[in-house]
Write a structure and sequence with these properties.
Elements (H helix, E strand, L loop, with lengths): L1 H11 L6 H4 L16 H7 L2 H5 L26 E5 L3 E5 L12 E7 L4 E11 L10 E6 L2 E6 L16 E2 L4 E7 L10 E10 L16 E5 L2 E5 L5 E2 L6 E2 L6 E2 L4 E4 L12 E7 L4 E7 L17 E6 L2 E6 L8 E2 L4 E7 L10 E8 L1 E2 L8 E4 L5 E2 L3 E6 L3 E5 L2 E3 L2 E4 L12 E4 L7 H10 L3
Parallel strand pairs: 1-3, 14-16
Antiparallel strand pairs: 2-9, 3-8, 4-7, 4-9, 5-6, 5-8, 10-11, 12-13, 15-22, 16-21, 17-20, 17-22, 18-19, 18-21, 23-25, 24-26, 26-29, 27-28, 27-30
The structure holds calcium ion (CA) (3 copies).
């Protein structure tokens, strides 16, 4: 029986022919089956992994072939059957009669995605052997061995299926049956049944992520997702996104935040918030300390981020759990961009914006003049009224005036240059009227 082991090992190490290992070249080394069923198809069909893995547990496999093979092995052709029905059965050759020696059969079962396969054996009667070296049934899925069975009863080294149900992780399953050269006893083989069953994707989560962002609906053969009111299902059919890019903030100050702040913000969303105040004002942004935007320990904001665009200046990207510092822009138009990817639960951000006018340069008080109001600094929309000390009158652009107003303009410049005060002369003819105007002028 070790000859079959030699055969399998020789296949595992990639040897194409059997005879050099066996050392007994006889005519019967040629396959007895159809000429097509030569050694090569066997080597080609039985993948090295599948062949080697049941052998892994064999102690000192190299030493075993030393036992002189008495019988000549016959290379076996692996007959492969493809099964795609939603249910069915499979059995050893000649079942319920004893199975022949030198058999190798494979059933590849595959159904539509959204199903998994259940397999169980209603009859199992194979030649027993230590670690199932001789005759065995191996169940595989996605290249992994799910089970290796042989024998009649469960032992320390042999596993029988009994009433066990084998479930495939996905929608395919492969069963491999192999019998070696010896059949000194009669074994009736096996009968197995399989059926496809729905995968409940909604209750089975993968990769720590919910299958659906909001609501999951299972159905036979698949599932679908839906979103809470106010959200839209993203084109990934999984995450729920929002419309968040319309509307312009025009008030001089205000608050804006990520959707649902401080509840987790929507996934797969690209939001832009535009703030637009009158020209001459400069916007200042102050983030709420409760800042929480998904980040990465090494890469700068690869998932979600906030960015601020103000004129030609860009601030950010910002992410993490620390609020960005106050942002003073030079612009009256600011756009706040917020991008979120398709995973994670983070509280988001909120910010308060204020606008301050452009500052005008400090004013020097001309001799004998008075300013009202007197401030340490003046900004857009501030006004300053000039008057002259008693006995003096204003002269501006060749005109004599009682007072003169300067406006701090949107671009941070004064509307004109300051006027001058000059001492009144002896124009007595107009004095009475001038005095009234100068001293009592209410405007
Ligand atoms: Ca056997
Ligand atoms: Ca389903
Ligand atoms: Ca995220």
């Amino acid at each position: 029986m070790s000859v079959s082991l030699v055969l399998l090992l020789s296949m595992a190490v990639g040897m194409v022919t059997v005879s050099p290992v066996v050392g007994v070249a006889t005519p019967t080394a040629t396959p007895l089956a159809t000429p097509v069923a030569t050694v090569s198809p066997m080597v080609g069909v039985v993948t090295p992994v599948a062949t080697v893995s049941p052998m892994v547990g064999v102690p000192t496999p190299v030493a075993t072939p030393v036992a002189t093979p008495v019988e000549t092995p016959v290379a076996t052709h692996v007959a492969t059957q493809l099964l795609s029905a939603m249910y069915g059965s499979l059995s050893s050759p000649n079942f319920p009669e004893p199975y022949p020696r030198h058999s190798a059969l494979r059933w590849n079962i595959s159904v539509a995605p959204g199903y998994r396969l259940r397999l169980y054996f209603s009859h199992f009667h194979l030649e027993p052997s230590y670690l199932c070296q001789y005759d065995y049934v191996q169940v595989e899925a996605d290249g992994e061995v799910l089970a290796l069975f042989c024998g009649l009863d469960q032992t320390d080294t042999e596993d029988v299926p009994s009433l066990k149900i084998i479930s495939s992780p996905r929608n395919s399953l492969s069963v491999f049956f192999c019998s070696d050269f010896s059949d000194e006893e009669r074994y009736t083989g096996f009968l197995a049944h399989y059926s496809a069953e729905d995968v409940d994707e909604c209750s089975e989560r993968s990769d720590e992520e919910l299958v659906c962002d909001h609501f999951c609906h299972n159905f036979i053969g698949g599932y679908y997702c839906s979103c809470r009111y106010g959200y839209l299902l993203h084109s990934d059919n999984r995450t729920c996104t929002v419309e968040c890019s319309d509307g312009v903030f025009r008030e001089r100050s205000g608050v804006l935040s990520s959707v649902d702040f401080p509840s987790p913000y929507p996934k797969s969303s690209d939001c832009s918030y535009r703030i637009e105040v009158a020209p001459g004002f400069r916007l200042r942004l102050q983030f709420d300390p409760r800042f929480d935007v998904e980040d990465h320990p090494e890469v700068l904001c690869p998932y979600d981020h906030v960015k601020v665009l103000a004129g030609s200046s860009e601030f950010g990207p910002f992410c993490g759990d620390r609020a960005p510092p106050e942002i003073q822009t030079d612009s009256n138009v600011v756009t706040v961009f917020f991008h979120s990817d398709n995973s994670g639960e983070n509280a988001g951000w909120s910010l308060q914006y204020t606008s301050i006018g452009s500052k005008c340069p400090a004013l020097e008080t001309p001799p004998n003049a008075m300013l009202n109001p007197v401030q340490s600094e003046y900004s857009f929309k501030d006004h300053v009224l000039f008057t002259c000390s008693p006995g003096y009158r204003l002269l501006k652009d060749g005109e004599t005036l009682d007072h003169y107003q300067l406006d701090c303009q949107s671009d941070g410049s004064w509307s004109s240059s300051p006027p001058l005060c000059y001492k009144t002369d002896s124009g007595r003819k107009r004095r009475a009227l001038s005095t009234i105007l100068t001293n009592h002028s209410p405007d």
